[in-house]
Design goal:
Its main location: membrane. Forms homotrimeric channels. It is a multi-pass membrane protein. It holds the Pfam family ASC. The protein is of the alpha+beta class. Among the domains are: about 100 residues, YojJ-like (Helix Hairpins, Orthogonal Bundle), CATH 1.10.287; about 200 residues, Sandwich (Acid-sensing ion channels like fold), CATH 2.60.470. Helix content is about 45%, strand content about 20%. It is built from 15 helices and 19 strands. Strands 1, 5, 6, 10, 14, 17, 18 and 19 form an eight-stranded mixed β-sheet that branches. It has a five-stranded antiparallel β-sheet with strand order 7-8-3-12-13, with no helix packed on it. Helix 1 packs across helix 14 and helix 4 runs antiparallel to helix 13. The longest helix is centred in the last third of the chain and has 31 residues. The chain starts with a helix and ends with a helix.
Length: about 500
C-alpha cells in the first residue's frame, strides 16, 4: 500500500515543481505595484464617482462619495434585475390596424341542406341515419347510444351488408346541387351556377363550397361593398328528409363562411337560414397574427401533409387519421390521407372505440404550444352579422309561384334566400407583438447603467480586466505558496512517542 502511494506523491510533487518553474519565469508584482495598479484604475476608470473617493483628501467627502457610489450601484442592480425579470415573463402587446384596399378576396362559403338525405332512399334504408352518425363521429366527438331504437338493426345491417359503401350511398342519395335546388345564383352582378361549387363531405352529408381553394386563380374578389353573393335555394322538403329523433328538426340551409385555404368546420360555427326567410349576411375580414412560444402559443414548425395551410381543424383531422390508421389499419373517408377505406364493420368495431380512446387519453389536443394542434401563427376569419326578413312578400310570392309553377304554400315552405356582402372594403389586422425585444432590453439596461453609474460597455470591459488581473496575481501567489504549505513543520516530540507506542502495540 505504501509503495503505491509513494509514486503518486512523487508525481504530484513533480507537477507542482513544473508549475512553479513556469510561474517563476513571470515576475510577481510587489505590494507597492499592486497598490499603484489599484490607484491608477480608480482614478482612470470611466465608472463615475470612484475617482472622487480616491482623490478627495477630506474623509467626510470620501464617505459621502462612497455612499453615493454604493447607492447608485444598488439602484442599478435593482433596475437591471427588475428589467430581466420582466423580459423573461415574455410580455406581449396587441396592435390593431385597419387596411383599406381597392379589391378584397371573397371568402369561401359552404352550404348544406338541414335535411340530409333523399326521402326515397331513406325509406328503403332507414338505418342510414344511425350509420351516418357513426361515420361522422370522426369529425366531432359524440356519444353513440346503445339504447337508440335502431341500434340492434344497425348491428344486423352491418352483419348482412359488409360490402355496403356508405360513401357512394350518401353521395348518390344525399343532397345534390343542380338547377332544381339552386334556383338563382348571382356573384357581383354576374350569374353563377352549380358548376361554381365544389362537393365536400361534412357531418351534414353532401355539402357544396363556393369559391373553394382548389383553383387559386379562380378565387373571387370584390371591389364594391354592399354587393357580393346572392343565392336562392329550394330545399324541397318533400324530396329530402332527416330523422327528428337525432335532433334534426329544422328545414332550411346551414352555411359557414371560411377562408378558401381552410376546410369548412360547420359544427359550432355554422349559420342557418330557415325556409321562408331572406338572410342578409354582412361580413368583415379579420387577420390574426400570433407569436411563437414563449411569447405566444403558435408553433411555426408544424406543417400539415394534406393541407397547404395550417389550421387547427385540419390538424385535428390529420391527428385523428394518424391514430385511427395505426390502431385499425384503415382510414375513414371523412379524414384526409391515403390508405384503405374503413368499412362499416371497422367503423363500428374499431374506429368508434379508437375515437373514444383518443378523447379519454387526450391524444389530439388544441390550444397550447405543446399540444397536438396549437393555434395557427396566422389565420383569417370572417365575423358575420346576420339579419332576417320574411321571404317572399305577398306580391313576390305570386310572382315566384307563377314563375316556378308551384303553389304559394310550396314557395313558403321550401325557398331560402341568402345574401352575403362585405360591409367595407377593408380588413383588420390583429397582431400579437413582443413587448420587449432583445435590442430594446439592451438599450434599457444600457440606459440604467448610464443614468446611475455613467457606465457603458467600455466600463464593463475595464472592470472585467481589473478583476481578471487581480485574480491572476492571486492565483500566482497561491501556487507559489503551495510547496511551503505542504512541507510544514516537524511534528512535536510527544506525538512521535505516542505514535511509536501505538506501533509497538
Amino acid at each position: 500500500m505504501e509503495q503505491t502511494e509513494k509514486p503518486k506523491g512523487c508525481a504530484d510533487k513533480g507537477l507542482l515543481e513544473k508549475i512553479k518553474l513556469c510561474l517563476s519565469k513571470k515576475p510577481l508584482p510587489s505590494p507597492s505595484d499592486r497598490r499603484k495598479f489599484d490607484h491608477d484604475f480608480a482614478i482612470s476608470t470611466s465608472f463615475h464617482g470612484v475617482h472622487n473617493i480616491v482623490r478627495n483628501q477630506s474623509k467626510i467627502r470620501k464617505l459621502i462619495w462612497l455612499v453615493v457610489v454604493l447607492g447608485s450601484v444598488s439602484l442599478v442592480v435593482w433596475q437591471i434585475y427588475s428589467r430581466l425579470v420582466n423580459y423573461f415573463t415574455w410580455p406581449t402587446t396587441t396592435s390593431i390596424e385597419v387596411q383599406y384596399v381597392e379589391k378584397i378576396e371573397f371568402p369561401a362559403v359552404t352550404f348544406c341542406n338541414l335535411n340530409r338525405f333523399q326521402t326515397d332512399a331513406a325509406a328503403k334504408f332507414s338505418i342510414i341515419f344511425l350509420l351516418w352518425n357513426i361515420v361522422s363521429k370522426v369529425l366531432h366527438l359524440q356519444e353513440i347510444r346503445s339504447n337508440y331504437t335502431g341500434f340492434k338493426d344497425a348491428i344486423d345491417f352491418l352483419a348482412s351488408y359488409q360490402n355496403f359503401s356508405i360513401t357512394e350511398f350518401v353521395k348518390k342519395n344525399g343532397f345534390y346541387l343542380n338547377s332544381s335546388t339552386l334556383l338563382e345564383c348571382d356573384f357581383f352582378g354576374k350569374p353563377c351556377g352549380p358548376q361554381d361549387f365544389a362537393h365536400v363531405f361534412t357531418e351534414y352529408g353532401n355539402c357544396f363550397t363556393f369559391n373553394h381553394g382548389e383553383n387559386i386563380q379562380a378565387r373571387k374578389k370584390v371591389s364594391v361593398s354592399g354587393r357580393g353573393l346572392s343565392l336562392l335555394f329550394n330545399v324541397n322538403q318533400e324530396e329530402f328528409t332527416d330523422d327528428p329523433a337525432l335532433g334534426f328538426v329544422d328545414a332550411g340551409i346551414i352555411f359557414v363562411i371560411h377562408s378558401p385555404k381552410k376546410v369548412p368546420q360547420i359544427d359550432g360555427l355554422g349559420l342557418s337560414s330557415p325556409v321562408g326567410m331572406h338572410a342578409r349576411v354582412t361580413i368583415r375580414q379579420v387577420k390574426t397574427v400570433h407569436q411563437e412560444y414563449p411569447w405566444g402559443e403558435c408553433n411555426p414548425n408544424i406543417k400539415l401533409q394534406n393541407f397547404s395551410t395550417y389550421s387547427t381543424s385540419g390538424c385535428l383531422k390529420e391527428c385523428k387519421a394518424q391514430h385511427i390508421q395505426e390502431q385499425c389499419g384503415c382510414l375513414p373517408f371523412l379524414l384526409p390521407g391515403n390508405g384503405i377505406e374503413c368499412d362499416l364493420q371497422k367503423f363500428y368495431n374499431c374506429v368508434s372505440p379508437a375515437l373514444d380512446y383518443i378523447e379519454v387519453k387526450e391524444l389530439c389536443t388544441v390550444g397550447k404550444h405543446n399540444s397536438s394542434c396549437p393555434v395557427p401563427c396566422e389565420e383569417t376569419e370572417y365575423p358575420a352579422t346576420v339579419s332576417y326578413s320574411t321571404f317572399p312578400s305577398q306580391k313576390a310570392l305570386k310572382y315566384l309561384s307563377k314563375k316556378l309553377n308551384q303553389t304559394q304554400e310550396y314557395i313558403r315552405e321550401n325557398l331560402v334566400n341568402i345574401e352575403i356582402n362585405y360591409s367595407d372594403l377593408n380588413y383588420k389586422i390583429t397582431q400579437q407583438q413582443k413587448a420587449v425585444s432583445v435590442s430594446e432590453l439592451l438599450a434599457d439596461l444600457g440606459g440604467q447603467l448610464g443614468l446611475f453609474c455613467g457606465a457603458s460597455m467600455i466600463t464593463i470591459i475595464e472592470i472585467i480586466e481589473y478583476i481578471f488581473t487581480n485574480f491572476y496575481w492571486i492565483c500566482i501567489l497561491f501556487l507559489l505558496k503551495i510547496p511551503e504549505m505542504t512541507q510544514g513543520s516537524p511534528p512535536p516530540q510527544h506525538h512521535l512517542r505516542k505514535r511509536s507506542h501505538v506501533e509497538e502495540c
